[in-house]
Amino acid sequence: MNYSATAPYVWDPSFADSADCLLSSDQCVIQAQHYFIKGLVEIPIIGSDEVFSWAAWVSLSRDNFARTVDFWDTSGRETEEPYFGWLSTDLFLYSPSTINLKTHVHTRPIGQRPFIELEPTDHPLAVEQRTGITMERVREIAEAVLQHPTNSESK
Fold this sequence. Notes:
With 155 residues, the protein is an alpha+beta fold. 19% of the residues lie in helices and 30% in strands. It has helices at 62-70, 124-131, 135-147; strands at residues 2-4, 22-23, 27-30, 34-44, 51-60, 83-87, 102-106, 115-118, 153-154. Strands 1, 2, 3, 4, 5, 6, 7, 8 and 9 form a 9-stranded mixed beta sheet that branches. It is globular and about 45 Å long. It starts with a strand and ends with a strand.
C-alpha cells in the first residue's frame, strides 16, 4: 500500500560522485543548492482504516532543511511547525504533473517519515488526499506502477 520514489525528479546518477551532492533514503542535496526530504502523501482508503501512501520527495528551503537535519534524531521533533515545500516527485499517473505542487511537511516522531499535506487544490492527487480512494483505485495504481517500474519501487 506504499510506493516510493528513489530520488527527486531532478536527481541525476552523475551527482552520486560529487562532494556537494547527497542521496540517502531520507534526504537529498544537489550541488549544495537544492534540498529535499522524503515524506508520505497519505490517501485514505474509503471504507477502510487503511491508507495508501506515495513516498515522495519535497524540496525545502536551505533553512528549513537545516532545521530538519538538526532535529532529525531529537525526541519531540513532531512539535515543529510544518515546513513549506514543493512536491519534487513526478507521480506519472496524474495529469497535470505533480511536480511543484505546494505542500506542508509535518514532522513526525523519530523513525516515522514526515506527512506531506498537499495544498487543497483541484489537482487530482490533492482531491484524492482529501476525499480518499477506493480499493479498486489502489489496484489500478498497483498495476500502473508494476508496468512502469523505473519511477517507483513497491514497498
